[in-house]
Specification:
The complex is a heterodimer. Chain A is an alpha/beta fold. Chain A has a single domain, classed as Rossmann fold. Chain A has twelve helices and five strands. Chain A has helices at about 5-25, 30-35, 40-50, 70-80, 85-90, 120-135, 155-165, 185-190, 195-200, 215-225, 245-250, 260-280, and strands at about 65, 140-145, 170-175, 205-210, 230-235. Chain A has a five-stranded parallel sheet, with helices on both faces. The longest helix of chain A has 23 residues, at about 260-280. Chain A is globular and about 50 Å long. Chain B is α/β, with parallel strands linked by helices. Chain B folds into two domains: about 10-165, Thiamin diphosphate (ThDP)-binding fold, Pyr/PP domains (Rossmann fold, 3-Layer(aba) Sandwich), CATH 3.40.50; about 185-315, Rossmann fold, CATH 3.40.50. Chain B has helices at about 10-25, 45-50, 60-75, 85, 90-100, 120-125, 130-135, 145-160, 205-215, 235-245, 260-270, 290-295, 300-315; strands at about 30-35, 55, 75-85, 105-110, 140-145, 165, 185-190, 195-200, 220-225, 230, 245-255, 275-280. In chain B, the strands form two sheets. Chain B has a seven-stranded mixed sheet, sandwiched between helices. In chain B, strands 7-9-8-11-12 form a five-stranded mixed sheet, sandwiched between helices. The chains are: A alpha/beta, B alpha/beta. At the A-B interface, loops of A face helix 6 of B. The structure holds thiamine diphosphate and magnesium ion. Magnesium ion binds near residues 147, 148, 178, 180 and 181 of chain A. Thiamine diphosphate (TPP) sits at the interface of chains A and B.
Amino acid sequence: MQATQTDLQVYANQIRYYTLKELQELGFGHYGGSLSIVEVLAVLYGKHINIEPNDAENPDRDYFVLSKGHGGPALYATLFLKKFISEETLYSLNQNGTTLPSHPDRNLTPGVEMTTGSLGQGISAATGIAFGNKLDGRANYTYAIVGDGELNEGQCWEAFQFAAHHQLENLVVFIDDNKKQLDGLTIDIMNPFDFVEKMKAFGFAAERVDGSNVEEIDAAVERAKQRTGKPTAIILDTTKGQGVPYLEQKADNHHIRPSAEDNNAINKALEELEKALQGGQNQ
Amino acid sequence: MTFSSVLDQKEMRQTYADTIRELAKEDDRVIALEADLSSAMSTSRLESELPGQYVNVGIMEANMMGLAAGLSVVGRKPFIHSFGQFVTRRAFDQLFVSLGYAKLNAVIVGSDAGVTAEHNGGTHMTFEDIGLVREIPNAQVYEASDSNQLKYLLKKAYKEGGLHYIRTIRKQSINLYDENESFEKAKVLRTGKDVTIVASGIMVGESLKAAAKLAQIGIDATVIDMFSIKPLDIETLIEAAKKTGAVVTAENHNVNGGLGSAVAEVLSEHYPVPLYRVGVRERFGQVGKTEYLKTVYGLDAQTIVREVERVIERK
Ligand SMILES: Cc1ncc(C[n+]2csc(CCOP(=O)(O)OP(=O)(O)O)c2C)c(N)n1
Ligand SMILES: [Mg+2]
């Protein structure tokens, strides 16, 4: 018997299910880094971000920027569940002429606030959004996700200096610490040392949580919202390919063109997710 | 030369990796720099094969330019690779000042030229890289059209020193040249009397296709592979312009700043003839398959044929 799932857990499974379906439909893509942000997206769009398709231009809305733009497929699955885009659009990912490109594009996809894909740039834009909203006295929040590899880029640290100096308590930065970048492990390519210590040294409030645990992420966001005078960094302890054991264990799981064997495993994962979701709905 | 769709045996990225390996074994000053796109360029194995001659700097392209500059100061011979936009747009001032202005040595290789960035889309699709690097005094700018040419250009850049930018695709190109071909001058691939088509990179194949179609309607075209955009082979260009009296350029790049601009500048200064530049006009990139994107941006034989017919009317 499966333990009863909370709403946020169910939501995360739905996002994971549609992220996988979308990528499977296409036959290639950034599986690893899309799956590692599923839980944080579930917490943000399931509870915190006050945005609805019929009021998407409301200046008091919360903003979300996916700075690690190659996680786009997970954001698109979320925007589909939030009814920003249709199922048909969801499965047009990366097709010729699509409105859902690999990397989010604010001019193509409803619900996407900022164009990203060149790593390091989204976090500056998110900081600008938070700064503007603070200048204008709005009470909303800006949430951004950066990759652990993305943090190699010096630009991220420029943004962090600015955010801390201007005391942007309305900015919450998630670091998707999935321990891998494109060519391999971050520890082998560019040692990240301790993100919590680094962010604190840069003037952020910082804590590390289990990034596969929606309750822990949610609690950290709640704490961030209580804070004043400082931006918050929430370091998400995640796994590339998160939630699909086969993909978690796959060494090269950044960009995958699934083989027959991969497809078998991924389709099985999809079936299991489908079952879990149907079970969840019956409760 | 007639158009043939036979592909190179090797992918361009494999040629890059193999050439670096060869040069590095001969000269221990050679060092390859990657910025977390090493597996995408088939160079990952160099890390264990060439200790002290390979470094993956992580995702920090601007810093990579500075690192290469420093390595050059201490006598190393850096080869820098990332996708085209990351070694140009993303790191331009570092490229300009630390390498160009400081007069240091580096060979910069930008991969995934133009539409071949395919599903990485607008953020990754670069139609400006040639234009940008062409602005740097004394920098040399090339676009490789096949694997044997890429190998030659890499070795030439290594031998000459200075600052070189070589644009390439990562996958297989159509095969144009034999292994021992040399490339001192632009390559005249076909000689015709009615029009000159000047192309580089993937547009060389499209130009040969266009020439075959044009032949069927009685238009006899010269086709030039102008792989060296800077310095430009003015002599070959002017000679062809004199013989044919009309020029069409073809590039997988913005018409502003790239091959078309370079040709237009030379022709208007030395020998003005009717000219049209086939290329990307005032547009950003997008996702899609290469063949689809070629039609979207008018980077195909059909467009070249149409523009040749128009330019000939203006003679
Ligand atoms: C400026 C820039 N350089 C290089 C790339 C190519 N690239 C795409 S994803 C990636 C690795 C990102 O690693 P990380 O931020 O850890 O993402 P994740 O592990 O979540 O996939 C690289 C190098 C890019 N998109 N932007
Ligand atoms: Mg990572």
